[in-house]
Specification:
- Helix content is 33%, strand content 31%.
- It is an alpha+beta fold.
- The protein has 2 domains: 132 residues, Aminopeptidase, CATH 3.40.630; 159 residues, Gcn5-related N-acetyltransferase (GNAT) (Aminopeptidase, 3-Layer(aba) Sandwich), CATH 3.40.630.30.
- An 11-stranded mixed sheet has the order 2-5-6-8-17-9-14-13-12-11-10, sandwiched between helices. A 4-stranded antiparallel sheet has the order 1-3-4-7.
- Strand 12 and strand 13 form a beta hairpin.
- Helix 3 crosses helix 4, helix 5 packs across helix 9 and helix 6 crosses helix 7.
- The radius of gyration is 21 Å and the shape is elongated.
- It starts with a strand and ends with a strand.
């Protein structure tokens, strides 16, 4: 017998066990990650049980009658393990949509988990979305390297790497979140007039909660960090959450050396290295200068998809 219920704190351990055992979940979907900014969102996460067994979960929040999966996360689709089959997913979606309608929810915005984070095929949810007339309304473009088939950096990037080495720059693991935040803050305020999403204390908090999954690397000239990168590490994919360089760092090719170290030395055993998205305005604007830089390191396109399901 299937049933659905809203997430509650006493179910935290069961949720975390499912994420760890899942074929498509990552530490970003663990409650210890999600809940660090719980005060910013009205949680509406759902848990799906068969008898007493938790078989699927949907990280979600509610805002103005719309359920999002999840506004505080890069992706947030249905989490499930390798026992999930397509017919069962259709049943789960039918039950979920009936539940949402009963709660007077008007719309579901569903962020699918990109395939580069799947440990094995896990697109049962995409078929269920199609069967329920969901509309693909947004597609963000990320740039990703498939490590087993990666290409060489383009000539200009290779030259910058060599120049950075000649200048005596060195990349190493760092715990100086304050300096990383200073670099980020300076760049974002100068170029875009905005502040970083994460504070230095939040970055450190998340690192302390997930020390195996969140690493900070710095590119140093002598003892000063002139470029920094916050890296999210999942079971098969490494994601560059932030990569920023100071003015000196940009002039000396610090980010080029950073990427060379991360891609060609540190994380060669992972299947994917993901640079993150280069789109804005709901995917309708492609920052061509930004995506070109990532493509010069050998990255190619992977889509982060958003679906809309009207319930009223």
């Amino acid at each position: 017998m299937l049933r659905v219920e809203k997430y509650s704190a006493e179910k935290k351990e069961a949720w975390s066990r499912l994420v760890k055992a899942s074929k498509n979940g990552t530490f970003l979907l663990d409650r210890n990650y999600m809940d660090y900014h719980a005060d910013r969102f009205e949680d509406f996460s759902l848990m799906f049980f068969e008898d007493q067994n938790l078989i699927a979960a949907l990280p979600a929040n509610l805002k103005d009658g719309v359920v999002y999966s999840h506004q505080g996360l890069t992706y947030g689709g249905m989490i499930y393990d390798d026992n999930m089959k397509s017919g069962k997913m259709l049943e789960i979606f039918t039950m979920m949509l009936d539940f949402l309608k009963a709660q007077q929810v008007q719309k579901l915005i569903y962020k699918a988990i990109p395939h580069i984070y799947h440990l094995m095929p896990a697109e049962e949810d995409l078929y269920a979305l199609f069967r329920n007339n969901a509309k693909l309304f947004r597609r963000d473009l990320s740039t990703t390297i498939h490590q087993p088939t990666k290409m060489r950096f383009e000539r200009g990037r290779r030259r910058c790497v060599e120049d950075a080495k000649k200048a005596g720059l060195v990349v190493k693991r760092s715990y100086d979140f304050e300096r990383m935040h200073e670099i980020m803050k300076d760049i974002l305020e100068k170029k875009y007039g905005v502040k970083p999403v994460h504070s230095a204390s939040e970055m450190k908090l998340l690192h302390d909660r997930f020390p195996e999954n969140i690493h900070l690397y710095g590119c140093y000239k002598d003892e000063e960090m002139i470029s920094g990168s916050l890296i999210f590490i999942t079971k098969k994919t490494v994601h560059a959450q932030y990569v920023y360089a100071s003015d000196e760092g940009r002039n000396k090719g610090a980010n080029d050396l950073m990427y060379d170290f991360l891609i060609n030395e540190k994380f060669t055993d992972f299947e994917y290295f993901d640079f993150g998205i280069s789109t804005e305005n709901g995917g309708l604007f492609l920052n061509e200068n930004l995506v070109q830089q990532k493509e010069m390191f050998g990255g190619r396109a992977v889509c982060y998809d958003f679906y809309e399901l009207n319930l009223s």
